[in-house]
Amino acid sequence: MDVIEYTPTRDEYTYTFGGVASAMRVRPGTGLRLWSEDAFNGVLRSIDDLSSANVDLRFVNPQTGPFYVEGAEPGDTLVLHLVALEPARDWGASAAIPFFGGMTSTDRVVTLQEPLPDTTWIYELDRDRGTVGFAARHSDHRIELPIEPMLGTVGVAPAGGEVRSSLVPDRFGGNMDTPQMRAGSTVFLGVNVEGAVFSIGDGHYRQGEGEACGTAVEGAMTTTLIVELIKGGAPGWPRIEDDTHWMTVGSSRPMEDSWRIANAELVHWVGELLGLHTMDAYQLCSQIAEVPVANVVDANYSVVVKAAKALLPAREPAHSERFEGRPATQRHALPTHPLHERPPPWIFSSPANEFW
Q: Do the Cβ atoms of 223 and 200 come closer than 8 Å?
């Protein structure tokens, strides 16, 4: 199996989904090992580096890619298996940015409040312990938190020739900022243009649900993933699968519309999986769904709605039926190849948070 390593130079980063030339062409079945810069473009390195003085909002959320997938056509389904996410630095940064975040006045939620203080936190990474250290700025408190790497942005080129900022989540994926986007997850995105033209970035060493202050523990990341392609069957909105759950992501404003989008997508998906009438799938999901909020701070808010596989009869996912000519054991499952012979790094077991 081909595994291609790619580390972009600073001038090769992109800041949009759509509207940029592909960095390379890849075939379905290819493994990629990708380096991505942090959301701040590496400019916040100490507590004295403030976002108002150092962060250029034209160049935030730099994307690695995009990648042109050979054979991908509009209406197909791009499948990305996230094999491993490894922090690429020994520190991450978080910040309270003036007029940005869930608990402050913003350009859309306008009040007469002054901005919250421009503040930067640096989290030192302890690889041996598998932690990042929260160090309070206004006291001597320090708390070690488990590393839980995730990607804030995963997306394809939008439909209709649109060019969207890498700060925006929508149907094409983008800046969803969900902690579900972690090693062991498989992402399904509808293809809108020839080649799919996908990119990734915005690595987080950990993030609380909602990303309340507007930033996670932002850090450079090395991501290993495998590219697959399903002909046809494009989902309307991003779908995620891991060993325990089927998940859908909706992004909009107000937040209840994000939930409605994701909930409708899950109802339809569960209906397809189990052969249920839409009304019965609606009732079933009403009793089993979990609803973690991904982000409450971006241009659109993102909500995940998910169903635990343990509560449902064993069934091959609907997308699997569209793997033309493949036996059932190879449909919509993590491929059995060398990259999956060992558990990915930085995966924690529950509840002890021990490394595999």
A: yes
SS3 4: strand
- State the sign of the Cα–Cα–Cα–Cα dihedral 326, 75, 250, 86: positive
Q: In the prediction, which pLDDT does 316 show?
A: 56
Strand partners, 17: 164
- Which domain CATH number covers 151? 2.60.120.580
CA atoms within 13 A on the CB side of 124: 8
Domain that holds residue 52: 3-236
State the total domains in the chain: 1
Q: Of all helices (H) and strands (E), which one includes residue 288?
A: helix 278-288
Domain annotation covers residue 119: yes
Give the Cα-Cα-Cα angle 264, 299, 74 (nearest 5 degrees).
55
Q: What is the largest CA-CA distance in the chain?
A: 62
**Confidence tier at 351 by pLDDT (50, 70, 90):** very low
Residue 145: beta bridge partners?
132
pLDDT value at residue 329: 29
The pLDDT of residue 306 is above 70: yes
Q: Kindly provide the b/e burial profile for residues 177-194, where b requires at least 16 CB atoms within 10 angstroms of the residue's own CB.
A: bbbbbbbbbbbbbbbbbe
Q: pLDDT, tens digit, for every residue of 161-185?
A: 999 999 999 999 999 999 999 999 9
